[in-house]
Specification:
Blueprint (H helix, E strand, L loop, with lengths): L12 H41 L12 H23 L5 H42 L6 E7 L3 E3 L9 H11 L3 E5 H5 L9 E5 L11 E3 L2 H7 L7 E4 L1 H7 L5 E7 L7 E2 L8 E9 L9 E8 L1
Parallel strand pairs: 1-6, 1-7, 3-4, 3-6, 4-5
Antiparallel strand pairs: 2-8, 7-10, 9-10
């Protein structure tokens, strides 16, 4: 039931219109039901009256009793009523349809705007990466990550497994190199990684950290690592998504399990990446899952 004169913050205008139209349709169908019921009763009375009084019992073609003509006329009125209820007066009228079309067009325009922003962003990243690669051809930009079979890499900004050999693998690979990461990845660690140049990417212009270099884009981070022959991208999900477009190598620890999480490693396009080595390890007292060290090189 709607209460006129009072507004309910939990009900928007669209919901109110839907309820009002539903109430209107209920009334229309009730009137149609009453019409149909009265018509049946009325026609029955007319026909019975006609039979009882024997009016024009000798029915000839096109010479029907008056009760038949009234019944036919009444039936046609009922057909018109049915047409009006179910065809002319549909649940939501033309005005509602126009409003819905406007909303759909607006929604599509917003989606197109988002797509344009993404395309421009992709173009900018591509241009930056091409410029960087032209100036830094000696670098082997490497992504290093551990991901489950469904590409989960973390949950609530934390690792979701402890694999001793994977940690050793990470340490041996990145020692003495630049490690590039997002702010959240850095903040998930107790401190800056020792014996490595820690480079943090953040949109915060006033962000300062001890023992680390702070930049505002992946391109800036790679420029800071220009003297390193193999800078490593170590996370998180958004940084991986950007870096996979310009990286030369992926050092992936594939954890052979499906698991829930909120941060993901991007899908590896095998048309662009070639697996060049794989080393499988089985689970034991120090490792809860089977896993494999896989290296991909860009084709």
């Amino acid at each position: 039931m709607l209460f006129k004169g009072k507004s309910n913050p939990n009900i928007d205008e669209e919901q109110i219109k839907l309820v009002e139209n539903a109430q209107k349709r209920v009334k229309q169908k009730k009137r149609l039901f009453y019409h149909f019921s009265i018509m049946l009763f009325g026609i029955a009375v007319l026909l019975i009256t006609n039979i009882l009084f024997g009016i024009k019992n000798d029915i000839k073609p096109f010479n029907y009793p008056w009760s038949y003509w009234i019944s036919i006329f009444w039936f046609l009125i009922l057909v018109a009523h049915i047409y009006n209820v179910y065809i002319t007066s549909r649940f939501m009228g033309k005005e509602w349809e126009k409003e819905e079309v406007k909303k759909l067009v607006l929604k599509q325009e917003l989606e197109i705007s988002k797509i344009k922003i993404e395309v421009e962003k992709e173009a900018r990243i591509k241009a930056e990466s091409q410029l960087f690669n032209q100036n830094n051809r000696k670098n082997l930009i490497t992504i290093i990550a551990a991901a489950s079979e469904n590409n989960v890499i973390g949950k609530n900004n934390k690792l979701i497994w402890y694999l001793s050999d994977d940690l050793k693998h990470f340490k041996n690979q990145t020692k003495g190199h630049s490690v590039i990461m997002g702010r959240k990845t850095f903040e998930s660690m107790p401190k800056a990684l020792p014996n490595r140049t820690n480079i943090i990417i953040t949109r915060k212009t006033d962000y300062m950290v001890k023992d680390a270099i702070v930049v505002n884009s992946l391109n800036q981070a790679l420029e800071k690592a220009a003297d390193d022959n193999q800078p490593f991208i170590i996370g998180g999900g958004e940084i991986y998504k950007l870096a996979i477009k310009i990286a030369d190598r992926i050092e992936l620890t594939r954890v052979h399990t499906g698991i829930e999480g909120d941060t993901y490693f991007p899908e590896i396009d095998h048309n662009l990446w070639e697996e060049v080595s794989r080393e499988k390890r089985l689970k034991d007292e120090k490792h809860d899952y089977d896993f494999s060290f896989i290296r991909y090189n860009k084709k």
